[in-house]
Amino acid sequence: MAGTLAEKVWEAHLVRQGADGAPDLLYIDLHLVHEVTSPQAFEGLRLAGRPVRRPDLTIATEDHNTPTLDIDLPIADLTSRTQIDTLRNNAAEFGVRIHSLGDADQGIVHQVGPQLGLTMPGLTVVCGDSHTSTHGAFGALAFGIGTSEVEHVLATQTLPLAPFKTMAITVDGELPPGATSKDIILAIIAKIGTGGGQGYVLEYRGEAIRRLSMEARMTICNMSIEAGARAGMIAPDETTFDYLKGRPHAPEGEDWDTAVEYWKTLRSDDDAVFDEEVVLRASDLEPFVTWGTNPGQGLPLSANVPVPAEIADEGERVSAERALEYMGLEAGMPLRDVTVDTVFIGSCTNGRIEDLRSVAKVLRGRTKAEDVRVLVVPASARVRLQAETEGLDVIFKEFGAEWRNAGCSMCLGMNPDQLAPGERAASTSNRNFEGRQGKGGRTHLVSPLVAAATAIRGTLSSLSDLDLEGDVDLTTFDGTPLAPLTAPSFV
Amino acid sequence: MEKITTHTGVGVPLRRSNVDTDQIIPAVYLKRVTRTGFEDALFAAWRSDPSFVLNQEAYSAGSVLVAGPDFGTGSSREHAVWALKDYGFRVVLASRFADIFRGNSGKQGLVAGMVAQEDIELLWKILEAKPGTEVTVDLETRTVHADDVTVPFQIDEYTRWRLMEGLDDIGLTLQNEADITAFEEKRAAWRPKTLPAKHLPKVDIEPARPVS
Ligand code: SF4
């Protein structure tokens, strides 16, 4: 029977088919754990006297609470320290592998899985974190779960699940220069809405997607959850295999060949039926920014802030009014006139090596706008090492940016990296909710390239606002891997 | 888990759509490592506003939240459900819920019932006209009753059954342990294992320092 990619992966993990309205029982290949959503799950195991069924399919890392400065000193915030200590103790007690602060494999959980080669096509991957959808970029069925489910997976390595619906999102054509995969996903969310993906697994396909690097694909799948979807997926191809080959946990020898042969079958059949289909033309896209307080409130940078009075739908109008008030924006003003205080480059959406490279290319030899604070936070310690090997850190520092240690950082402000009340940020992260980056903080979601241009000009800007010299090759910003490296590759 | 068949309690009209989990419980409260005691964190940012619905005497002891569409979007934090439960809510009604929130609710014994938006408006009117009105939610008949109005709600069969039986998910799954073991025996060799750990060369990480 013809099937979609998601259905194929689902079927390969059926432990038990649900009968009489009961959900299916699905086997979980890889369980990623971090300090925020796991303490109560381990506590639950302890209370029930249950062990972790498969410590060898489980891995933990510290990311949400970790400071990005002075990581060799004790964590000043007591609750953050407690949460991290709790994770360390739980990992030791239950025999779970952990990558702690200061370890080269520490970092945001959605970077650590891929860089170690643990995330692969055809797996089921879960984590107590909604952005687990990131791993779908490899053709894995990957989704966020709640703490009860974390406990369930720890205890049984399975999850009872009702099948998802499937939606195909085809992005045809080629991205214009200066537009990136972040703009693709922001445009998709603006189109289908923050609830548009509810109950669905989104499968991204089409020429524009095929041309993207793994990093750029991860950006897209990462934000599937912002459209309300459970997961996002991209069928694996040579780009995927090249990324995985030689990574520490990637299959080797005969196993590699068997795996690749299987992975090549992981695509939606031509006659597969999706519950919903959406088509987008990449060539129509331009850099996107959000103006409101949910990721669906986004517009091309060349647009003006919406005028609520002109919005017909009452719910949307009220929500736009509220958003503008919170964001301190005037209706109808050009988005390009919005001045920012902070530029944050990082997170599991855009804190990867490709992102840092493209930002460095723009910043090199330029100077930061006065009074703008620029934070560059690599997604993992390996990404940081890689960037330093390539000399990117020097470019950032000369530009006037702060070069930090790895973690979630200002993406959600659980560590000291926060916005002050009323402070405005251009952020490469994924959520612009009220107070997300600090109480009263205002967030505009942007691509790394827009973040870079904004750091130079101090107002929301794209590359086209810069006087780019000939040495900045725009064609390498479409997400395809940048020039081959002379430096050893870690990530 | 406590069995729940019907619940009666004060209804609280929350006239907002897209209430995301950051609003239900801001991230700063996620640092706690306990499973209870989150009542103070619920809607923390809004609670400082005296006009916020829960700050009004008549609603403050509410246990049935009637909210706008797309409740519980955003982060998967289960703390959102704990906070609602710790505050005293047993039921949330909305026309649409975020999937993860709905899943988390079912597991924690919080009823997340889907009610058509026009019926939500009806309930809002009643609850606002007569603050303190009790709402009865009946899982048996899948109905919500307030004042002289009875409207249906939807909830998936399996969650309803588990709520009514008060069944723990893990216990249920472990009844099928033989199936899990059989599945594990067939797993392909290429599928990754986190242990024994394989690493790239060990490298020391330099701590970043504040820029003065
Ligand atoms: S970087 Fe942000 S979105 Fe990603 S895991 Fe961390 S907090 Fe969540």
UniProtKB/TrEMBL annotation, chain A:
Organism domain of life: Bacteria
Coiled-coil segments on the chain, per record: none
Catalytic activity field: (2R,3S)-3-isopropylmalate = (2S)-2-isopropylmalate
Domain (Aconitase/3-isopropylmalate dehydratase large subunit alpha/beta/alpha): residue spans on this chain: 7-458
The EC number(s) this enzyme carries: 4.2.1.33
Record's keyword terms, sorted: 4Fe-4S, Amino-acid biosynthesis, Branched-chain amino acid biosynthesis, Iron, Iron-sulfur, Leucine biosynthesis, Lyase, Metal-binding
Physiological role: Catalyzes the isomerization between 2-isopropylmalate and 3-isopropylmalate, via the formation of 2-isopropylmaleate.
Quaternary structure and partners: Heterodimer of LeuC and LeuD.
Similarity comment: Belongs to the aconitase/IPM isomerase family. LeuC type 1 subfamily.
Name under which the protein is recorded: 3-isopropylmalate dehydratase large subunit
Species of origin: Isoptericola halotolerans
UniProtKB/TrEMBL annotation, chain B:
Aconitase A/isopropylmalate dehydratase small subunit swivel domain span: 1-111
SUPFAM superfamilies in the record: LeuD/IlvD-like
InterPro entries tied to this protein: 3-IsopropMal_deHydase_ssu, Aconitase/3IPM_dehydase_swvl, AconitaseA/IPMdHydase_ssu_swvl, IPMI_Swivel, LeuD
Protein name listed in UniProt: 3-isopropylmalate dehydratase small subunit
One Pfam family recorded for the sequence: Aconitase_C
Catalyzed chemical reaction(s): (2R,3S)-3-isopropylmalate = (2S)-2-isopropylmalate
Enzyme superclass (EC): lyase
Pathway named in the protein's UniProt entry: Amino-acid biosynthesis; L-leucine biosynthesis; L-leucine from 3-methyl-2-oxobutanoate: step 2/4
HAMAP family xrefs: LeuD_type1
Organism: Isoptericola halotolerans
Keyword entries, A-Z: Amino-acid biosynthesis, Branched-chain amino acid biosynthesis, Leucine biosynthesis, Lyase
EC numbers, comma separated: 4.2.1.33
Protein's job: Catalyzes the isomerization between 2-isopropylmalate and 3-isopropylmalate, via the formation of 2-isopropylmaleate.
